[in-house]
Every structure is written in structure tokens, then in C-alpha cells.
Design brief:
The chain has one domain (about 10-245): Phosphoenolpyruvate-binding domains (TIM Barrel, Alpha-Beta Barrel). It has 11 helices and 8 strands. The protein has helices at about 10-15, 30-40, 50-55, 65-75, 100-110, 125-135, 150-155, 165-180, 190-200, 220-225, 240-255; strands at about 25-30, 45, 85-90, 115-120, 140-145, 180-185, 205, 215-220. An 8-stranded parallel β-barrel has the order 1-2-3-4-5-6-7-8, surrounded by 5 helices.
Length: about 280
């Protein structure tokens, strides 16, 4: 490929082929401007249902709707050129059964341009994953801590410790056998994440898991320091944009109240510029 050739977004088969190679770089995005910023650096950009908490002030992801995912998905797609876009299926859009999941997954892909969908759950979702992949809908699985199930999991707790270890391991193998092209491991012990990564034929993508996973993902507003309501242990902050925005807004407010803004260079005079004949 020449230096000027346009790089195309990877497909699920390309992601599988990256198993054991250079780790996959993944971030969430919810808007066109953020998508444009992530695109040059990411292999996968996820339109996460975390948008409900990050942008809409919800206490959990449970209130996120299909309409919200379609709107944010379409916005993100307009900002991507080289990264693969995956979109979350929101709570209540797939749990009823494979047919419901297919209708909603097809809609998300059709109306947003996403290359794949992500859904939460392990053994109990294997049949649905198999149904979707057999009908040309690539699926990224998500096991361990599954935020849509916090009411049954008892909160945002680490999953896979003690007797629960076998369940998470079984979930991992179930989604791989069902045809998922990758699996997110959220908030599971590092040793378990390493074991799953070694045993599965598909890439693992960690979030609060292990550096040994085949890729990593973070919520972009967490890593940029834009979302400051709380900070998960696994969310390293690579920037302090929230603090910078606070300082900028404070300076703007001060100048407005002092009538220092707008300054002469920001306003218009009465004179009409001369035009050449």
C-alpha cells in the first residue's frame, strides 16, 4: 500500500487476526468532534451506553434508549474514517430473545453505519450471539461486570473472585463458541483475565482487567478528565480537560461581568468596507 493510500476501517475478521499481536486500542465516543479526535489512534471506537451517565446525567445505563443510541451512533460515524465502530445494544433491546435482538441490532447497524454491536452477558446470551452472527451481525461480547445487570449483581463489584471465578470463565468460553469476534472483560481479577486471554481464540479487551489482554478500552471522558462525578479505579486520567474547562469558563464569566469582553476586536463597526471596482 502506498503512503498516500487511504486506510480502511478494520472488519471483525481483522480484529480476530490481531489476537496475540500489538494490543488493540479502543475508546468510547458519543459525538462527532470526539470521534474525530479518537479516529487517528484507535482500532475500535465504541458508542457506549455509558453515554447515559456521561452526557445525560443518568445514575446508570438502564435508562438509555434505542433512539439515544441511534442518535449518538450516527454522530460518531460521521467523525470516523479509519477506526471500526461498534455500538452498544441498550438495556431491554435484546434480552427478550434472538428475534428481538436481531430487529434492534439490524436497526442500529442500518441507521448508524456501525460495523458491529456489543451486548452484555455470557452463557445466557450465547444463543442470541449465535443467532445474530449467523445472520451477518458481528457481535462483541461483554462479560464480568455487566453494568446493565447491576441490580442483580449487587452494584459495581469485581466479578470472578472465589467461587464466582468458574462462572466468568464459563461465560468467556460460551460467547467465543457462539461466534463473538471479541469480548470485553470488565472488572475481573488480572490473573483470571490472563487465563481467559490465553484460552480464548478471540481477542479480549480489558477494562479494569489486565495489561495482558489483547486490547484495552476506557470511557474517553474518564481518561480525558472531562467526567469528574466519580473516578473508577481502572480509569487512568491522561488529561485534566475538566479543570481546564472550569478555568476557561470562570475567566469568561469574570470578563463579561467586568465588561472586558467583548473587546474592540470582537465587535463590528458601522463603516461599510470599500469594494474595488
Amino acid at each position: 500500500m502506498s503512503a498516500t493510500a487511504k486506510k480502511t476501517a478494520p472488519l471483525p475478521a481483522d480484529i480476530i487476526a490481531r489476537k496475540g499481536e500489538t494490543p488493540l486500542v479502543c475508546l468510547t465516543a458519543y459525538t462527532t468532534p470526539i470521534a474525530r479526535l479518537t479516529d487517528p489512534y484507535c482500532d475500535i471506537v465504541l458508542v457506549g451506553d455509558s453515554v447515559g451517565m456521561v452526557l445525560h446525567g443518568m445514575e446508570s445505563t438502564l435508562g438509555v434508549t434505542m433512539e439515544m443510541m441511534v442518535m449518538h451512533g450516527a454522530a460518531v460515524r460521521r467523525g470516523l474514517a479509519k477506526a471500526m465502530m461498534v455500538i452498544d445494544m441498550p438495556f431491554g433491546s435484546y434480552e427478550e430473545g434472538p428475534q428481538q435482538a436481531f430487529r434492534n441490532a439490524a436497526r442500529l447497524m442500518r441507521e448508524t453505519g456501525a460495523a458491529a454491536v456489543k451486548l452484555e452477558g455470557g452463557v445466557e446470551m450465547a444463543e442470541t450471539i449465535r443467532f445474530l452472527t449467523a445472520r451477518s451481525i458481528p457481535v462483541m461480547a461483554h462479560i464480568g461486570l455487566t453494568p446493565q445487570a447491576i441490580n442483580t449483581l449487587g452494584g459495581y463489584k469485581v466479578q470472578g473472585r472465589g467461587q464466582d471465578r468458574a462462572r466468568v470463565l464459563e461465560d468467556a468460553h460460551a460467547v467465543a463458541r457462539a461466534g463473538a469476534f471479541s469480548v470485553v472483560l470488565e472488572k475481573v481479577p488480572a490473573a483470571l483475565a490472563d487465563e481467559i486471554t490465553a484460552e480464548l481464540p478471540i481477542p479480549t479487551i480489558g477494562i479494569g482487567a489486565s495489561a495482558g489482554c489483547d486490547g484495552q478500552i476506557l470511557v474517553v471522558d474518564d481518561m480525558l478528565g472531562l467526567f469528574t462525578a466519580f473516578k473508577p479505579k481502572f480509569a487512568k486520567r491522561y488529561g485534566t480537560l475538566g479543570q481546564a474547562a472550569d478555568a476557561a469558563i470562570a475567566a469568561y464569566a469574570e470578563e463579561v461581568r467586568a465588561r472586558a469582553f467583548p473587546a474592540p476586536e470582537h465587535v463590528f463597526g458601522d463603516a461599510v468596507p470599500e469594494t474595488k471596482a
